[in-house]
Structures are given as C-alpha cells and as structure tokens.
Amino acid sequence: MKAIGASAIVQAGAITPGMLYGAGIVTGLVWLVLGVTNLIGVVAKLAAKPVVWSIMLGFGFLFIAEGVKMMLPTPWLAGMAMVLTLFLLSSPRIPAMFVLLVLGGVVALW
C-alpha cells in the first residue's frame, strides 16, 4: 500500500483516482487471500529484506527529485526550511517534522 501511495504522489498526473482505487482494492484482496490461506509466510520468505529496502530507496530518490522540483521556484524558502530542520534536529523538545508541516501550511495559505 505504501508503494501505491508513493507512486500516486510521485506520478500525480499519470495515475487517475480510478487506478488508485482499483490498486487499493486488488492489493487488499490479495493480502486477504494470502492471510486466510496462510501463504503470507511464503511471500515473506520470497521478498527478502534487500528487495524491500531497494523499493523504499527507489521511492526515496523519486521523492527527493520531486521535492527539488517543488523547491526551484522559491529557493529562499527551501534554504530557510533546511536550516530550521538542521537546528530542530538537535532539539529533543520540538519535533522538526511538525514545525515543517506548520510552515508548509502557512506558506500554502499565503
């Protein structure tokens, strides 16, 4: 399901809502059948951790590329958010992700 969501985000123009709904329903049905028939163990053995990590790494690179494209119109905002993130990562009291979400919301409304 994470891969479906990541694909929808990274390739927003190429994937229609119907395709997304269909992929979610089919994926859910496949997992239901695998769980009911106890074949989930076989799938877990076939999908080794390096395979899963590679998929996650690939989507990570796609997210980075998409993020860079989004930052190009306002490099000053991207630089400010990066400095803020680096500062907040050393602070155990203030979660950096929450502050970035608030900043993104403010910029979106502005």
Give a quick summary of the entry.
The protein has 110 residues and is mostly helical. The protein is built from six helices and no strands. The two termini are 33 Å apart.
Question: What brief labels describe this structure?
Answer:
110 residues, 2 domains, 6 helices, 0% strand
Describe, in plain words, how this protein is organized in 3D.
The protein contains six helices and no strands. It is mainly α and 110 residues long. It has two domains: 69 residues, no CATH class; 38 residues. The chain is elongated, with a radius of gyration of 19 Å. The protein starts with a helix and ends with a helix. The mean pLDDT is 84.
List the helices and strands and how they pair.
Elements: H1 2-10, H2 17-36, H3 40-46, H4 49-71, H5 75-89, H6 96-109
Counted by DSSP, the helix tally is 6
Cα end-to-end separation: 33 Å
What is the β-strand count?
Answer: 0
**Overall geometry:** elongated
Largest sheet: none
Gyration radius from CA atoms, angstroms: 19 Å
Task: Give the total of domains.
Answer: 2
What is the overall pLDDT average? 84
Strand content: under 5%
The helicity comes to: over 70%
Topology pattern, helix = H, strand = E: HHHHHH
* Uncertain segments: none
